[in-house]
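Appendix B, record 7
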Amino acid sequence: MPRDDDPAITPDLVLHAYASGIFPMAEHRDDDELFWVDPRRRGILPLDGFHISRSLARRLRQGGYDIRVDSDFAAVIDACADREQTWINAQIRDLFCRLHDMGHAHCLEVRQDGVLVGGVYGLALGGAFFGESMFSRRTDGSKIALAYLVDRLRRGGFILFDTQFVTPHLASLGGIEIPRARYRRALAEALTHDADFNAPPPATAQEVVQRNTHTS
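Structure tokens (predicted):
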């Protein structure tokens, strides 16, 4: 895909790109340029197919953590970028922080004793949620975040959870790949739906586990 470091890349252009099925990335943290990505095979996490293992169910029920939504978006995106290799450069950080201020980008945080230990962030459009990145600083931090996120998306009326790619970690939780044409059809359908990331009230761990029909 063509590269573009044009300062005219705006939050509105990013929204249009996601609605068209493409998304921006950078080669690395210090890269000044972005490029647009349109995978031949797209990663998604079916909202009715999230896999909660017995060990994760036990960890969720044990508690000892707090779940927060949109309380510190900048901290979550910075934590996601805090790794040796990352595609989140300064421009992507700035764009998504602005999208958060506009009400389009959201994060879910896992905290222990007030400390941020896991989280995930992404973009909401219609009934589609585009998961961008997640992180874990303690055991199962990202899995706990994803479990609560999937539950929130289902209760908020979302019908598509786009993960862009499928890693072994996501595959273990139910992530799959679908062809580009099938993804585009699913995206078009999702964009016609009304969903609200902020509508669902907080959920307990027991509710998250019980509502997930794929616990095993």
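Remarks on this record: The domain at 40-84+104-211 is CATH 3.40.630.70 (Aminopeptidase). Residues 28 and 52 are 32 Å apart (CA to CA).
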